[in-house]
Write a structure and sequence with these properties.
This protein is an alpha+beta fold and 195 residues long. The protein has one domain. 50% of the residues lie in helices and 17% in strands. Strand 3 and strand 4 form a beta hairpin. The longest helix has 27 residues. The mean pLDDT is 91.
Length: 195
């Protein structure tokens, strides 16, 4: 993997690195309008966070302490960049990092073709390490409020990644390969001998 920092994303999807189109490839069925996509992801994130925070409060109540930990919020903010790096290490080839802090954007993308399994793993890896594992540890030991707060919020912040996982899991057949063109993902099944 070679990480290349591209700086501020200017909003022009055609400026993003894209793979060469593959004949017969199918675009993911997803929200085409970025504003509609943002609404879907934000609603999903809020629902997930509300559920996780409810679990945090319920499990934390057994200790008689406030389950929210200020440092968990701080770690969440500090995890945004490492979150993207964890996506990036799942690429074998070049991966590009973009930012647009005014719009709250930080993302990686690359022109590489990857298997359905690796795409799903790439999408979930940061959410496992910063979200599900810390939150599970908190559920086992509610004294670890830092992990509970970090985990609950990180799980919600992964809503866009879960959307990609859902699309890959439900649309891409076994043996399928996935690649990006701008913000859109495409899939195809390679012909025998192509892989």
């Amino acid at each position: 993997m070679k990480l290349i920092y591209k700086g501020k994303y200017n909003g022009d999807e055609t400026s993003l690195p894209s793979s060469e189109p593959v004949e017969g490839a199918v675009v993911f069925k997803e929200a085409e309008d970025m504003k509609k996509f943002a609404v879907i992801i934000n609603i999903l994130a809020v629902v997930i966070m509300v559920l996780c925070v409810a679990l945090l409060i319920w499990r934390g109540a057994s200790t008689g302490r406030n389950p929210f930990n200020f440092w968990g919020y701080v770690l969440l903010l500090l995890s945004f960049f490492p979150h993207e790096l964890l996506h990036g290490i799942c690429f074998k080839e070049e991966v590009y990092l973009y930012t647009n802090w005014k719009q709250g954007m930080l993302f990686v993308t690359g022109p590489e073709h990857m298997s359905k399994g690796r795409f799903i793993f790439m999408s979930l890896l940061p959410n496992l390490l910063f979200g599900f594992i810390p939150f599970a540890l908190f559920l086992l030991n509610p004294q670890w409020t830092l992990l509970g707060t970090l985990g609950a919020l990180s799980i919600g912040c992964g809503a866009g990644d879960y959307y990609n996982v859902w699309n890959a899991a439900t649309q891409v057949p076994k043996g399928g390969m996935i690649y990006n063109q701008g913000f859109h993902s495409w899939w195809y099944v390679p012909k025998k001998g192509e892989m």
